[in-house]
Amino acid sequence: QHWFISRLNGASVTAGGFPPQDNNILIITTSSNQFYIFDVEARQLGEWSMQHLFTLPKRYQEFPGEVIGLSFCPSSSSHPTKSSSLLVYSTRAMCSIDFGKPVDEDDESELVNGALLKFQGSLTNMKWKHWLRESRQSRKNNFDLVVFRDPVLFIGHLSKHSILIIDKPWMEVVKSFDSAPLQRHIFGT
Description:
This protein is α+β, with helices and mostly antiparallel strands and about 190 residues long.
């Protein structure tokens, strides 16, 4: 039995996989850094994708690099779109997505609060900074983004609380070039 999935919004598929808890769900990432959850039995977009496809946070939409892979967090949950998490990664960054948490749009109030800090006194400024720090830590963000220093080749979960990251230091990348990356024009005679 075959099923054809056409190009999604004109983008090519870059990675895909089945969560370990349910092989009836297929998650696909595309070259436009979108991801889609398909219900394989129903042969259509899953409920989560239909609800959140156009409401993904801006920090994820501006994900650095093109998604090259994904890794599923091992979990004991039986319903992956309710409580499983996923790591989506490019060579430059990774993003943690938890399907059990709400998809919050970016909080613009932090910018407003940051602007208000400039107008407050130093004691009040310290209180504001402490309050902002506490509210950020207590708020459980979804779509947390981590930017890498060196290009990443692979990311995979080893267990629920540990991941394996294979990267390549930039000096090795530069040394692998056949010739100098820049051609300098020599002026004069």
